[in-house]
Amino acid sequence: MIIHALKARPGLTQFVKFCIVGLSSTVIDFAIYNVLLDAGLSTPLALTCSFIVGLANGFYWNRRWTFRAVGGNTRKQGSKFLASNSIGWLLNLTVTTLALVLAAHWHLTKIHHTPQETLNLVLFRAANDGQGFSRLALNAAKACATVVVTTWNFTAAKFFTFKD
User: Fold this and answer.
1) Which residues, including other chains, have CB under 8 Å from residue 19's CB and lie 6 or more apart?
2) Which of 138, 147, 53, 132 shows the shortest CA–CA distance to 97?
3) Which residues 6+ apart lie within 8 Å of 76 measured at CB?
């Protein structure tokens, strides 16, 4: 029943494949993010580095499997993918930061700073310096961003990057 429904709707099939690829990219992204936080990198730097590795995984598998666009110009598709995912990276950083600022403001974290102090903490402090957010808060904020970024990235990939 589910397979028949997917075959009848190619856009839905692409979205399911995109989500599978996205899940693998997300696992890679979160794993590297947490390793980099353990290494003492700041939240934005850890987000950026992990996002790039997840991005490379996503490009490879979305090009080959989700959109089957291997006949297209790799450089052109790669440039478009990088451009659209740069917006995704900005969304990732913005939503993660906003979620952490709001969590601190609403006293959902152990730290209680003003929004400006929280913003400075997110952007300029190492994650494991004892003054920052718990690992749970950092990962929950990143998970919020992942929902927003997935929606953006699928739309951009389907209608811009790998458009037939």
Assistant:
1) 150
2) 138
3) none
**pLDDT tens column, 135-148:** 888 899 999 999 99
**Cα–Cα distance for residue pair 73/59, rounded to 1 Å:** 13
Q: pLDDT band at residue 6, thresholds of 50, 70 and 90? A: low
Cα–Cα distance measured from residue 4 to residue 7, given in angstroms and rounded to the nearest whole number: 5
What are residue 111's phi and psi, to 5 degrees? -95, 150
Say what angle helices 43-61 and 115-124 make with each other, to 10 degrees.
Answer: 60
The pair of three-digit structure tokens given for residue 149, joined into one six-digit string: 């970024």
Per DSSP, the three-state class of 1 is: coil
Q: Three-class SS of residue 67?
A: coil
